[in-house]
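sry for the spam today, last one i promise. struct tokens for design, 561 residues
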């Protein structure tokens, strides 16, 4: 005889049909088994009784055998009810802790008895292992030992003592038996913070009133209108998101106007006197050209506006005012929806004499930084704007999607113009930002705004009658080559324009009036300029290009989108 397996239990899920359950471990008698039914719904365990609820058939030669349910749990059915799927059945070996073999001095030793004794002891040890495996135990690395459980106390629960080296009974306190004053009951019944503050007679905190401050929600942080709640660093980080420079529009405050004169306003798209901005009529029908100018105004935060005047059209029309955003700046808009979308604000004034509908329209470039073909991505609802008063328009939480935003974006204010003659529009305080709501206007320093504008456009001249352009050498008797270093790297190699070449001169010993000024070669960082004269220059002599005694001498380098 041997005990060749450590198994001493078998488990089954009942199904309402099966009433015979096999086991494959060794027993010596039918009474060596214990059988349990467990109700998975009520979580109650019942121990069954041998020869009342079940019988045991020991296999020959073994090991193992079969447990058969009888009586209330087996056939015939009815009256018996075989346990269904809500039950599990467990068969355990549980041998009596006895040894009944008695060896007589001088008798032969029977190997069956000796092996039987060893088998019995082995099976008892296995039963103890099984029982210990289902008890709580400290890990092998623990130094805790000799822990005893105190005698039970009705209604108490076990807990570790304050020293952490033993268990103790703790008294359970029924909260329904605790006496609470009417005042505290009123406080506990308060449904929100405002009501609780009123009960406690504590005001809400603000910059001027001491009181109880609350944490702002992400939506309240994004809205930026509540001055009482506290903003956590994480919410502030989520709010600022990817923006870096909050206002994605350059010269949104209309402060920079490098072009020397007002620019024409008609149906063609052309940049106005205010840097980075352009305006145009949707249709030429009935339009008399006006101008895109630059003025000071006390009605805007930056004291500057773009002025469109005179606005004359014999029929209803649409006026577009907007800015193209280069791909290096627009690409962050791809993730705008992660931060609540995009918001656009602009302050406008008009004297059309009637309320005028205005809306925000957003397009993306079909090719990177090439706006000759664009695709519409968003059109807002109309906002009715009264005549004769400055009105701040807000378009908040705009969803422009993600398609092609990394190629460049153009944002327009579209104005539904009535029949008009000599009307005027002022525009200022424009801001495009990532976030679900318009926030305070970002007021960048004039010097920073100028540098941002000069990436796209740079004007020379107009500040002194002999304003210098640059120095170089004479390349021929009729030409001086002058290198001009740009104040900032331009978006691309620029083009050149000047109104009158005769307003420039070359200083090389004598003064030579220019007959032509052209761009020989350019990069985004410098230009090699050719200043032509009729004759008289000495080859390889130094030359200075400058204005010819005139404030009207100016030229412009353009790398506009």
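last one done:
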């Amino acid at each position: 005889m041997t005990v060749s397996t450590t198994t001493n239990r078998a488990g089954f899920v009942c199904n309402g049909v099966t009433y015979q359950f096999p086991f494959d471990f060794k027993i010596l008698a039918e009474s060596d088994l214990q059988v349990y039914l467990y109700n998975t719904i009520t979580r109650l365990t019942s121990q069954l009784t041998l020869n009342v609820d079940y019988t045991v058939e020991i296999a020959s030669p073994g090991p193992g055998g079969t447990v058969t349910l009888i009586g209330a749990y087996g056939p015939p059915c009815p009256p018996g009810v075989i346990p269904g799927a809500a039950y599990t059945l467990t068969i355990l070996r549980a041998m009596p802790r006895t040894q009944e073999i008695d060896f007589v001095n001088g008798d032969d030793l029977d190997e069956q008895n000796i092996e039987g004794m060893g088998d019995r002891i082995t099976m008892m040890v296995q039963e103890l292992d099984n029982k210990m495996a289902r008890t709580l135990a400290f890990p092998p690395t623990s130094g805790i030992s000799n822990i005893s459980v105190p005698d039970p106390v009705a209604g108490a629960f076990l807990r570790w003592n304050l020293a952490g080296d033993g268990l103790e009974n703790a008294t359970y306190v029924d909260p329904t038996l605790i006496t609470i004053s009417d005042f505290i009951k009123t406080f506990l019944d308060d449904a929100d913070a405002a009501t609780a503050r009123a009960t406690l007679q504590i005001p809400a905190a603000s910059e001027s009133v001491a009181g109880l401050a609350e944490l702002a929600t992400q939506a309240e942080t994004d809205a930026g209108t509540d001055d009482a709640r506290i903003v956590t660093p994480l919410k502030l980080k989520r709010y600022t998101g990817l923006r870096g420079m909050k206002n994605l529009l350059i010269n949104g405050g209309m402060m920079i106007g490098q072009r020397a004169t007002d620019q024409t306003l008609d149906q063609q798209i052309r940049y106005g006197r205010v840097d980075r901005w352009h305006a145009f009529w949707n249709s030429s029908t009935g339009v008399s050209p006006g101008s895109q100018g630059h003025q000071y105004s006390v009605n805007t935060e930056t004291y500057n506006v773009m002025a469109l005047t005179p606005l004359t059209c014999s029929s209803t029309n649409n006026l577009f005012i907007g800015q193209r955003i280069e791909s290096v700046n627009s690409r962050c808009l791809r993730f705008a929806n992660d931060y609540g979308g995009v918001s656009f604000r602009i302050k406008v004034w008009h004297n059309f004499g009637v309320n005028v509908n205005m809306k925000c329209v957003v397009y993306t470039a079909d090719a990177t930084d090439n706006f000759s073909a664009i695709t519409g991505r968003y059109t807002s609802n109309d906002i009715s704007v009264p005549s004769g008063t400055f009105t701040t328009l807000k378009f908040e939480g705009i969803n422009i999607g993600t398609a092609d935003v990394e190629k460049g974006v153009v944002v327009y204010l579209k104005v539904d113009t009535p029949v008009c003659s000599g009307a005027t529009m002022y525009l200022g305080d424009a801001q495009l930002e990532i976030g679900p709501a318009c926030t305070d206007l970002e007021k960048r320093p004039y010097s920073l705004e100028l540098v941002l504008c000069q990436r796209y456009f740079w004007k020379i001249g107009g500040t002194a009658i002999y304003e210098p352009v640059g120095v170089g050498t004479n390349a021929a008797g009729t030409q001086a080559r002058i290198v001009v270093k740009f104040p900032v790297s331009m978006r691309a190699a620029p083009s050149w324009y000047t109104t009158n070449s005769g307003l420039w001169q070359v200083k090389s010993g004598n003064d030579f009036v220019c007959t032509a000024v052209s761009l020989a070669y350019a990069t985004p960082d410098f230009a090699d300029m050719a200043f032509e004269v009729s004759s008289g220059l000495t080859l390889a002599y130094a030359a200075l290009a400058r204005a010819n005694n005139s404030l009207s001498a100016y030229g412009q380098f353009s790398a506009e989108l």
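Residues 111-133 form the longest helix (23 residues). ok im logging off now
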